[in-house]
Design brief:
Elements: H1 3-23, H2 52-63, E1 66-71, E2 74-79, H3 82-91, H4 103-109, H5 119-135, H6 141-159, H7 169-185, H8 194-210, H9 213-220, H10 222-225, H11 231-256, H12 265-273, H13 278-282, H14 286-317, H15 319-332, H16 347-360, E3 369-370, E4 375-377, E5 380-382, E6 387-390, H17 392-396, H18 439-456, E7 457-460, E8 485-488
Parallel strand pairs: 2-6
Antiparallel strand pairs: 1-2, 3-6, 4-5, 7-8
Helix pairs in contact: 6-7, 6-18, 7-14, 8-11, 11-14, 14-15, 14-16, 14-18
């Protein structure tokens, strides 16, 4: 096709879409206020496409906690601040329980899995995931032992560097991945195993790409961007490779399956396929299995890894806080292995871990929601199918709940007597029907890995290194690439 024909086709598609969008404007009477959109592009010209939450923060000052923006021709509602987010996700939980159509995701996932699925399939898969995670030890001693064993392996690997500088990304990634992999596959990878290295690389690149301007543009203009090269094509290829690995794995397990000895989540799913119930065909099909395993692997690895990396970086930045944590570890645990039950005796360490999650702000924009029906929210009408974004960073940095929201300040979670105190605006796992299914697992991992590392090492910046707390670009807030020095304490 010659360039002129391509250009004309694009113009026609855009014009048709614009006129179609105008026909829908009657739906948006009494819609939340927001900046006036331009034809075709909406408000893209005034939004920081790398970090849209920064633009939303400025808009909230003008329009209040509920406002609208338009990405391309898609109108969406932004919910800003903890009070408004709680109102939306708790008091309108059912009406905000859908996910919107996201072209970059829908191309490969469709309506399968847990994170981006809707309707009865999502409900069945979420129930399955939660019950199976519990059955295989989430919150139980069996899984706690796996985490403490992995924490020992991680500490030994850190020690192998002899206090010299190294990048901790791949090592922590592999250690955390091994915990969810043990539940999914009953397997443990060595940290230099090519299989886990490739899977981690694919997932990490996809997380970065999902927050890139090119993929955000693809989600707004898929018909146009399909013609162009860019990050969306790499995203699709990476996803294909991950799916192929998972399919090969469960095909192998199907041949070995013993329904009386279900070793892991994949075995349990395969056994469900053989039950002969209507659910077996409707929901327990291979596409759902692939998506569920992919969802749990990515979610179970990336956010916990990122939080731990923030934790070590912040301990290097604030050595006086690191010393206080280590003093509490010595007083409560000594040289014994850290156990989950120690947490309630360690208010300062608990507060520091909470503050690492709050300050790290791992998923600043949250995952998008969509209305299942027309709703009235705080005096505004939000039509069925509208994208709604409850911005988590606005809760974790809410000045009404956090005294020093822009600082790393563990006292946000401590009373004046030094006891741990909860803060209701602390919602890094979100709230409501779409909150993170692996929250309890993540909490256990963070405490056991973090205390084990601080028990064994003092973390310092390499000589002459500047510690940069500015997050890297991506759909999550990860630290920029950096090196650490892990100085053995004994």
């Amino acid at each position: 096709m010659d360039p002129v024909t391509v250009l004309l086709s694009v113009v026609v598609i855009l014009c048709l879409a614009y006129f179609y969008n105008n026909q829908k404007q009657h739906k948006y009477k009494n819609f939340p206020p927001g900046p006036t959109p331009l034809p075709i592009i909406g408000n893209i010209h005034i939004i920081n496409m790398s970090k849209p939450q920064e633009t939303f923060a400025e808009m909230a000052k003008t329009y209040g906690p509920v406002f609208s923006v338009q990405f391309g021709m898609t109108k969406m509602v932004i919910i800003w601040g903890y009070d408004a987010i709680k109102d939306a996700l708790m008091n309108h939980a059912e009406e905000l329980s859908d996910r919107p159509h996201i072209p970059a995701i829908a191309t490969s996932v469709k309506n399968n899995g847990i994170i981006f699925a809707n309707g009865e399939s999502w409900k069945v898969m979420r129930r399955f995931a939660l019950s199976t995670l519990r059955d295989f030890g989430m919150g139980k001693k069996h899984l706690e032992n796996k985490i403490t064993e992995e924490a020992e392996c991680l500490a030994q690997t850190f020690k192998s560097y002899g206090g010299k500088p190294f990048n901790n990304l791949t090592i922590i990634n592999a250690a955390v991945a091994n915990i969810i992999v043990s539940i999914l596959l009953s397997h443990r990878f060595e940290y230099d195993d090519p299989t886990i290295l490739q899977l981690m690389s694919l997932v990490n690149e996809n997380v970065r790409l999902l927050g890139s301007p090119m993929v955000r543009l693809y989600n707004s203009f898929p018909a146009v961007m399909d013609w162009l090269p860019g990050g969306h094509r790499i995203l699709f290829e990476n996803t294909r490779k991950i799916r192929n690995f998972i399919r090969a794995r469960f095909t192998q397990q199907r041949e070995e399956l013993d329904v009386n000895d279900q070793r892991n989540l994949i075995d349990v799913f395969l056994a469900k396929q053989l039950e002969g119930k209507p659910e077996s065909t409707l929901y327990y099909h291979n596409d759902n299995l692939t998506a569920v395993v992919s969802n749990l692997f990515a979610a179970g690895m990336e956010t916990t890894t990122t939080t731990l990396r923030w934790g070590l970086l912040l301990m290097m930045k604030y050595p006086e806080i690191q010393i206080k944590v280590q003093n509490e570890i010595e007083r409560v645990i000594g040289s014994a292995q850290p156990q989950a039950e120690h947490r309630k005796q360690m208010p300062y360490t608990d507060a520091v871990i909470h503050e690492i999650q709050r300050f790290g702000d791992i998923v600043p924009n949250n995952l998008p929601h969509a209305t299942t029906q027309d709703i009235t929210f705080r005096g505004y009408v939000i039509p069925k199918g509208t994208v709604v974004m409850p911005i988590l960073t606005s809760a974790l940095h809410d000045v009404a709940y956090f005294e020093k929201p822009e600082e790393f300040y563990p006292e946000h979670f401590l009373t004046s007597e030094g006891h741990f105190k909860k803060n209701e605006a602390f919602i890094p796992f979100s709230i409501g029907k779409r909150s993170c299914a692996g929250e309890n697992l993540a909490k256990m991992e963070l405490f056991l890995f973090f205390t084990s590392l601080l028990q064994n090492f003092t973390f310092q910046a390499p000589p002459g290194a500047e510690l940069d707390l500015t997050p890297a670009m991506g759909s999550t807030n990860a630290p920029k690439p950096h090196e650490i020095c892990a100085i053995p304490r004994c």
